[in-house]
Backbone:
């Protein structure tokens, strides 16, 4: 019911910046908590950041202070600004939408690769 399409991934040098975008194809975007998760090879998927419908945010400890999540409800888009990137940030990044009225209703994007390397 909800399509999520990530973009903006790629190769960046350590210390660099990258901004990911996720376009949500839904008529009720403002009813979803939006988030970013990532998964590196051989590791569990982990929380990067979320933003609820009221604008409140949560960040994973490893990215706090370096990454910023934002959303534009008028454009049905959520962003992840990534600064001071480290090699350990290398992962596939997934966009997530969770319905605020039923947390069992959630959707995932296809993922976008972020590689931090010199």
Residues:
């Amino acid at each position: 019911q909800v399509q999520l399409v990530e973009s903006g991934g790629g190769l960046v040098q350590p210390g660099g910046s990258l901004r990911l975008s996720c376009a949500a194809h839904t008529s009720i975007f403002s009813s979803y908590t939006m988030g970013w998760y990532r998964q590196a090879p051989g590791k569990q998927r982990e929380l990067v950041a979320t933003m609820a419908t009221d604008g409140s945010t949560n960040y994973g400890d490893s990215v706090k202070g370096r990454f910023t999540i934002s959303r534009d409800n008028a454009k049905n888009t959520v962003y992840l600004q990534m600064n001071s990137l480290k090699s350990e940030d290398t992962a596939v990044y997934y966009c997530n939408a969770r319905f605020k009225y039923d947390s069992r209703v959630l959707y995932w994007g296809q993922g976008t690769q972020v590689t931090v390397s010199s």
